[in-house]
Every structure is written in C-alpha cells, then in structure tokens.
C-alpha cells in the first residue's frame, strides 16, 4: 500500500484518540490487541467479509441472465411465482430479481426488465400488452359454502359475513357497488370485514371466514382445484386488466426477451398491444 510502519502507527494513534480508548497494548518488543481492540477487530473482519461475499455474489450473477420483474404481492404470489417455477425447467440459467410493491415502480430507475401491472394499460414510459382481464365473482371456500349455502340470489349473501379488499383498484370490487351493479342494494346490517393486504384478504376467504369478490386469473388455481367455489350462480363481472409491461424503447437481453415471450404465450388470452401515445399519460 506504499505506507510506512511509522505512518501506520501514527494513524492508529489518531484512531485511538478519536475513539477514546486504546486498541493495542505496546511492549518494548511486542504488541497485542486490547480487549476493545479484539472486539473491534472481529467486527471489522465481519464487515470486510460481508463486502467480499457481496462482490463475489455480484460477480457470479451474470447480467445477461438476470431478469428483473416488478409487480404486486397478489400477482407475484398467486400468478407469477408458480409460472416462474415452471419456467426454470425450461431455462435453468435464468436468474430473477423480484420487486414487489403496490406503488408504480419507475421501470427505468429500478432497472426493471418486465412488469405485470393492473389497470387500464396506459402508463407513461411503458409499452403494455394485455394479458387477461380480471373477472370477479362472489367466491368462498368449500367449507363455508357447506355451512351457510346454498345461496339462491345475491340478496342472500347479505345474511353471511362478507370480506372486502379495501385497496381495490376497481370500484366494482366493493360490496356496495357490486350489489348495485347486480341490481340490488346492500343493507345496513351486514357483517363486513376489510383488509388492506390482498394476501390477507385472500387467506381469509380461503380460511372460510366469509365471501370475497375474487376471480380469474389470480384465483384460477383455487377454482380449478375446487378450494374456492362461486357462492351463487351468476355471470362474472369484467374489470380492468393485467398487463405485461416493458420500459419504452428498451433493448432487452436475449434472456429477457425469451421470458417475456413465454409469459405472453402462457398467461395471455387474446393479447392486445396498448399504444400509450393514445392515452392520458400517467406517472410511471
């Protein structure tokens, strides 16, 4: 390091003066660490070890095989992660970095390659392709239906506990609006529980705590397995859509393009490209 022993000794003295305690016991022909010096040495060693480990980890993760995905907790848990598990068998070399947030993540700022967003498809700085529109129904668990059902008409649902996701994007996802859209009125004396977490909301429905307004594509696996069932025989209500997004003008790697095309083929039902220039620009 081109630093003399005298200079090192002087810097150590300055460090001890700054800290307010001695780090070394100095003898005429020997030097050893004090108790405080041993403690600090152990901590510093751990710190440098962590830095080395992180650098090695970054070196081992090749950028051309890394796919950064941004989406919400609901999409990642019930839709994306099961599909990523299947995709790993197709391309074992692909690595994933998942950013989960209910806020709109800036795709460029956070180096996002692919995002799955819910809404109308018009986001500034992003090209969007419709995957599927959400179709909601009053859903409940088999156990709940067996205990309280069957339900003949929508008004019967007001007699049992209802569950609601209070941060829902679509107005029709609230029970009051859903009853209105179905030509009925939700009364005042209704047992209602609400959740600000989509994961907790879904779990409450799965646990048989009540009926929730849910549907495909996120609940597809539970409907196909019979874990969740429609509480009443009614037509699904179409809402906004889930869109596969990329930064506008991006030059994706071959790994990203391959995964993007695979997602589009696997998750899309009649995909349509959205030209954001034809829509009101919203913050990315």
Note down, in words, how this protein is organized.
There is one protein chain. The strands form 2 sheets. Strands 3, 4, 5, 6, 7, 8, 9, 10, 11 and 12 form a 10-stranded mixed sheet that branches. With 284 residues, the protein is of the alpha/beta class. It is built from 8 helices and 12 strands. The protein is 36% helix and 25% strand.
| Low-pLDDT windows of residues | 270-284
First-last Cα distance: 47 Å
Please, how many helices?
8
**Which outline best applies?**
elongated
Task: Provide a quick synopsis of the model.
By secondary structure, the chain is of the alpha/beta class. 36% of the residues lie in helices and 25% in strands. Helix 3 (73-90) links the parallel strand 3 (66-71) and strand 4.
Task: List strands and helices in order, with pairings.
Blueprint: H1 5-19, E1 24-26, E2 31-33, H2 35-60, E3 66-71, H3 73-90, E4 95-100, E5 114-119, E6 126-141, H4 142-148, E7 162-165, H5 175-181, E8 192-195, H6 198-206, E9 211-216, H7 220-225, E10 228-230, E11 237-247, H8 254-267, E12 273-274
Parallel strand pairs: 3-4, 3-5, 7-8, 7-9
Antiparallel strand pairs: 1-2, 5-11, 6-9, 6-10, 6-11, 6-12
